[in-house]
Design brief:
Structural class: alpha/beta
Number of strands: 5
Number of helices: 9
Strand content: 5-15%
CATH class: Alpha Beta
Bound molecules: BIS(adenosine)-5'-pentaphosphate, magnesium ion
Order of helices and strands: EHEHHHEHEHHEHH
Strand order of the largest sheet: 2-3-1-4-5
CATH superfamily: P-loop containing nucleotide triphosphate hydrolases
Radius of gyration: 16 Å
Helix content: 55-70%
């Protein structure tokens, strides 16, 4: 199973990504986690993206596409992936899809975790103090949500045009969201 998880900051991509990876026996690949690991390790890539992460801005498409495609290909070789946090721009979506398609590892489903900003803000505020630098400041959280809204619609349209977009109400409990995703996956319908 190969799944792309889309949704606002705080919509539960990481939470559901971990659960689904465990349930489906595939790897959870999270672009934000990969970037934060680079920052923590002080790699060359980490040094170039640190400020963007701190401000809640997107890092450049080229940087993230190369990094994610490598991780996704490795996961797919082991049976599949739950990809969380990518794509964030229509360019990322189109370019990564072309690369994946050529390798025969394109996603089976793109799951959109739909959530009101007010709920998302509340969840992220509740997580402040957990160590994420971009959770510490309400203005950065607001900016992350603005960046999300500025980019997401063309991405949803892209996956809808491919016929693989599934939308799930992310305001439910964690368990109910997982159940809704599993019920909507193509294999569950087959
Ligand atoms: P990223 O790491 O992807 O962060 P994000 O999108 O801001 O989202 P979060 O990780 O904060 O939220 P989430 O949806 O994973 O929710 P979670 O499960 O944690 O990106 C960070 C930065 O990296 C970006 O700003 C950018 O700079 C850069 N970046 C990453 N990818 C990039 C890309 N492709 N291109 C360019 N730049 C990129 O849940 C949130 C909280 O809610 C938790 O406390 C959780 O316990 C709780 N919760 C979850 N589900 C529920 C529920 N159902 N009910 C109640 N509480 C819940
Ligand atoms: Mg996350």
């Amino acid at each position: 199973m190969r799944i792309v998880l889309l949704g606002a900051p705080g919509s539960g991509k990481g939470t559901q990504g971990e659960i689904l990876a465990e349930r489906l026996g595939v790897r959870h690949v999270a672009s934000g986690e990969l970037l934060r690991a680079h920052v923590a390790a002080g790699t060359e890539l980490g040094l170039t993206v640190a400020e963007s992460l701190e401000r809640g801005d997107l890092v450049p498409d080229d940087t993230v596409i190369d990094m994610v495609c490598e991780a996704v290909a490795a996961a797919a070789a082991e049976g599949g992936y739950i990809l969380d946090g990518f794509p964030r721009t229509r360019t990322q979506a189109e370019r990564a899809y072309a690369i994946a398609k050529a390798l025969g590892i394109e996603p089976d489903a793109a799951v959109y975790l739909a959530l009101d900003d007010a709920v998302a803000r509340g969840r992220l505020a509740g997580r402040a103090g957990g160590g994420r630098i971009d959770d510490a400041d309400a203005s950065v959280i607001r900016h992350r949500l603005e960046v999300f809204h500025a980019n997401m619609q063309p991405i949803l349209e892209f996956y809808a045009s491919l016929g693989i977009l599934v939308t799930v109400d992310a305001a439910q409990t964690v368990v109910a969201v997982t159940d809704a995703i599993l019920a909507a996956l193509p294999s569950a319908r087959a």
